[in-house]
Amino acid sequence: MTTLSGKTALVTGSTSGIGLGIALSLAKAGANLILNGFGDASKVIAEVEQFGGKVGHHSADVSDPAQIADMIAYAEREFGGVDILVNNAGIQHVAPVDEFPVERWDSIIAINLSSVFHSTRLSLPGMRAKGWGRVINIASVHGLVGSTGKAAYVAAKHGVIGLTKVVALETATSNVTCNAICPGWVLTPLVQKQIDDRAATGIDPQQAQHDLLAEKQPSLEFVTPPQLGELVLFLCSEAGAQVRGAAWNIDGGWLAQ
Ligand code: NAD
User: Fold this and answer.
1) Can you list the domains of the chain with their CATH numbers?
2) Best mutation site among 48, 92, 145, 190 for ligand 1, i.e. most ligand atoms within 8 A of its Cβ?
3) Nearest-CA residue for atom 6 of ligand 1
């Protein structure tokens, strides 16, 4: 098992869903954790604290570069910096491109793409100084292929994969690596909303869930947050040290089609 004791991981958007699953895997492997995200963090902090590492929470809204800077300064002050940065916070909005609300486009680009740039540029100097680091961007299969109704999300996630490649090249001769993970459907609040929207048209909720999977994910099973956590641990391990600039799909066969 990968030992990350002495390392500090910052996982954006870790009060829910995939980010929480990844935070739990990193804490179980011994890392100190800085959580981030909206909602009541006290329950999530207690859940992550059970593994014995130091745990903090910073409430930065990652659509605001100044709040991201404040979060990285907090990490430096309270934890001695960020060794593992998991850029995970993300939102979704589904609408045809010619009806897409402009303010939703702006928020999705800010949260799903620009925040990755800001947290990475602010964390990299500390990683370089320590001679080790991992930047892991939670992109999506939608970073590699499109789907109707998801103009902003698909554009942002494709951008994240491009940014991942550049950071991987700029760190290639160091012990800092940068990679993207591209999940297919994971049953989190972000996806439950899409199932609920389908069910609202009168379809049975179970059928709506089945239809969502059947359209894209040949396994007909959801990817789980613990499975994503294990992939993050691999990328943090010595075995993952030469994985650089990858866009690693974990998607029940979505992209094999
Ligand atoms: P989620 O809605 O369960 O969790 C999102 C998290 O981000 C929450 O903790 C929320 O508080 C936080 N967040 C939202 N806006 C924020 C902001 N402005 N500042 C700080 N935190 C903010 O969603 P999820 O499904 O766990 O998604 C996590 C990531 O995984 C996203 O980037 C998403 O695009 C990606 N992803 C999800 C799926 C899926 O099927 N669920 C598939 C591929 C990729």
Assistant:
1) 8-184+224-249 (3.40.50.720), 186-222 (no CATH)
2) 190
3) 13
Report the atom number in ligand 1 closest to the C-alpha of 67. 19
pTM: 0.98
The whole-angstrom separation of Cα 101 and Cα 16 is 25
Pick the catalytic residue: 24, 60, 127, 153?
153
Helix and strand totals (H; E) in the chain? 9, 7
Q: Which of 188, 196, 224 to mutate to test the pocket of ligand 1 (most atoms within 8 A of CB)?
A: 188
Q: Return per-residue pLDDT of the chain as tens, 257 residues.
A: 569 999 999 999 999 999 999 999 999 999 999 999 999 999 999 999 999 999 999 999 999 999 999 999 999 999 999 999 999 999 999 999 999 999 999 999 999 999 999 999 999 999 999 999 999 999 999 999 999 999 999 999 999 999 999 999 999 999 999 999 999 999 999 899 999 999 999 999 999 999 999 999 999 999 999 999 999 999 999 999 999 999 999 999 999 99
Q: Which residues of 178-188 are buried (b: 16+ CB within 10 A; e: fewer)?
A: bbbbbbbbbbb
126 with 85: CB under 8 angstroms?
no
> How far, in Å, CA of 85 to CA of 239, rounded?
18
Q: Counting atoms of ligand 1 from 1, which one is nearest the CA of 38? A: 11
Whether 153 sits among the annotated catalytic residues: the reply is yes
